[in-house]
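Step 1: inspect the first sequence and its tokens.
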Amino acid sequence: MIHEEYLGEVCFRKSPNQFIMKRREPVKHIMTENVLSVKEEDKLRDVVSLFKKHSFRHVPVMKGNEISGIISSTDINRLTFGTLFENQDGADEAVLEMLTVPQVMTSKPEVVSVETSIKEVAEIFATKGFHALPVVEDKELKGIVTTTDVIKYMLEQY
């Protein structure tokens, strides 16, 4: 038999596989802070270099101080041949030169607040098919949260 107690914001669940899960833990506890971003006027090849250099897969796109989009390595990979055919670097470079960041990014991405619960973020990922969300406070970019962050958090619960 499972016994659950709700004390404030924390759920204590007692069962053969005991765990303690914070019901309203904010996303700021698992997000990546000091996130790098790109500008709309940046070159796509520079975005690719950023992905390779830092080994991440999503980056917010800024227009001035506002988040105007998000671009992923998957967005870039859809445009290039390098992963499908050998010796296609020239073709990939031509494609990256022809297109702009605004043409490739997801415009007006959904954003979440630093106080949005991890549960709410997981629901957004599950229902809307996103893999990353910019995290803001008073419209200012504070970080990014990904499906990987949520999965790692869930694994820590068990």
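Step 2: inspect the second sequence and its tokens, then contrast the two.
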Amino acid sequence: MGTCCRAGLSYDVGLDLRSEGRQLEWRPFSLGDTAYDLSHLHPRTCQYEQAAKGEKPARTYCVDVLFSLHCFTRGFTPSEKPDRSLFYSDDRETRVFDFQRYALSKRLPAIIDHLAHRKCYHTGKGNFFSVEVIDESGTLLEYDIFFTASRSSKRGVVNLFVQSAYVRDPTHRGNRPHMKPIGLPIILFNVLQNKSIRPPK
């Protein structure tokens, strides 16, 4: 299991995390008199333990976890005319607040906490994903979590950026390639060693 806690630093919403490597805290989304708290998607620092195996020693990985606004918003087409009161923006894009994504995003901290013991998959496009099967009133939903892993400017630390998380549906079905799983410790080890990670076949 991973051990996670809130990171100690925060910056204004709107920074490009992938290039800046900085941390942020998402502002609440307000609709009428209701405020939707997003503090569960604030930055987290996790430690993942990898047990010793044979001649390989035990390892501890320190990971700074950051969440994208794609975890609680959706895109829209040019022909679509969404309610502007549902818009949520950072300095890169404007998207539509998605109530299902928001509700499911509350599961993300626990999913990320246990990511080292979950099956992860290489997309073949430089990022990875894991799948959570959720039972909602007898209906099974496949909740896909996409993420990247990169070396932090802090020595021995990996940045894990959760790019998006949503329920699998016909509009997203082609995003999930059929590949063998890869463990998170393998991903983290290779990132720290600056080694490329080839998709398992």
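Step 3: confirm your contrast with the notes below.
Helices lie at 17-20, 99-105, 108-113, 184-192. Residues 2-192 form one domain.
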